Amino acid sequence: MGTVDRRMELKVEGVVQGVGFRPFIYRLAKTYHLNGTVRNDGAGVIIDIEGKKENTNHFLNNILTEAPALANISNIQHKELKPLGYSDFVIVKSRGQTEGKVMVPPDIATCSECKADLVNPTDHHYRYPFTNCTNCGPRFTIVQELPYDRNKTSMQTFIMCEACEKEYNDQLDRRFHAQPVACPNCGPMVQIIDRKGKKRKGDWLNLCQKLLLEGKILAIKSLGGFHLACDAKNKRAIRRLRRLKNRPHKPLAIMCRDVDIVREYCHVSEYQLDLLKSPAAPIVVLERRHDCDLPRELSPGQNSLGVMLPYTPLHILIMESGPSVLVMTSGNNSNMPICITNQDAFRQLGQIADYFVVHDRPIENRCDDSVVTTISERPFFYRRSRGYVPNSIPVPVDQNTNISIVGVGGDLKNTFCLLKGGLAYLSPHIGDLNTIEGEGAYLESLARFKSLIHIEPEVVVVDLHPSYQSSALVENSKALHKVAVQHHHAHMASCMAENAINEPVIGAILDGTGYGLDGNLWGFEILQGDYVNCARKVHLDYVPLHGGDSSVRNPWKVAVSYLLKYGGKDGEELVTKLFQGKEQPVEIIKKLIKTNQNITLASSCGRLFDAVSAILGICQTASYEGQAAIELGELVPWLASDTEVESFARSTSPYPFLIKNGVIDPELMIKGFIKDIKRGAQNKIGKKFHDTVVAMVVDSVQLVGEETNLRKVVLSGGCWQNRYLLMLTKKMLRDRGFEVYYHKLVPTNDGGLSLGQVMVGYWRCKNVLGCSGTSNAYQ
Amino acid sequence: LSHGDGGALTRKLIEEIFYKKFYNDILIKDQDAALLPACDRPIAMTTDSFIVKPIFFPGGDIGKLAVCGTVNDLAVSGAEAKFITTAFIIEEGFKMEDLAQIVDSMWQTARECGLTIVSGDTKVVEKGSIDGIFINTTGIGVLPAGVNLGFQQIKPGDKIIISGNIGEHGVAVMASREGFSINLSSDCAPLNRITQSILKNSQGVKFMRDPTRGGVASTLKEIAISSHNVDFCINEENLPISQEVNTVCQLLGYDPLYLANEGKILAFVAPEECEKIISLMKELPYGENTCCIGEVQEGKGDVLLKTIIGGTRKLNLLSGISLPRIC
Ligand SMILES: [Fe+3]
Ligand SMILES: [Mg+2]
Ligand SMILES: [Zn+2]
Ligand SMILES: [Zn+2]
Question: Catalytic positions (chain A) (predicted)?
Answer without folding.
Answer: 22, 40
